């Protein structure tokens, strides 16, 4: 492996054991694509602890976000109190993860 390839050492936490039973994939479209709007949206996502991953993507949506929640009521609360309070969201689509089939951080083989 090249020097500098390792970015950090981490631990893996079983989210269900700390109360986060569900994951939700949220696809978001913004009303504007100005640098100011993109920066503000990214900063707002950084301040939401339940947001595990967020990607600026190409295609029909602007962002792909993975969120940890306790249950559907918790997700509704997060939408109302946090996500929908971020200015600039035009449209969103949510999908609850039913089962994780594979999750890897690197495409390394043994």
| Uncertain residue segments | none
Assembly classification: single chain
Strand arrangement within the widest β-sheet reads 2-3-1-4
Order of helices and strands, N to C? EHEEHE
Mean pLDDT: 93
* Percent of residues in beta strands: 25-35%
Q: Which value, in Å, is the CA radius of gyration? A: 16 Å
- Please count the helical segments: 2
Principal-axis shape: globular
Task: Characterize the largest beta sheet: strand count, sense, and whether it forms a barrel.
Answer: 4 strands, antiparallel
Q: What is the percent of helical residues? A: 10-25%
Rounded to the nearest angstrom, the distance between the terminal CA atoms is 13 Å
Structural class: alpha+beta
Number-wise, the strands total 4
Describe the secondary-structure layout.
Elements: E1 22-30, H1 35-46, E2 51-56, E3 63-69, H2 72-81, E4 89-96
Antiparallel strand pairs: 1-3, 1-4, 2-3
Task: Report what the structure shows.
The protein has helices at residues 35-46, 72-81; strands at residues 22-30, 51-56, 63-69, 89-96. The protein is globular. It is built from two helices and four strands. It has 110 residues and is an alpha+beta fold. A four-stranded antiparallel beta sheet has the order 2-3-1-4. The longest helix has 12 residues, at 35-46. A hairpin with a 6-residue loop joins β2 (51-56) and β3.
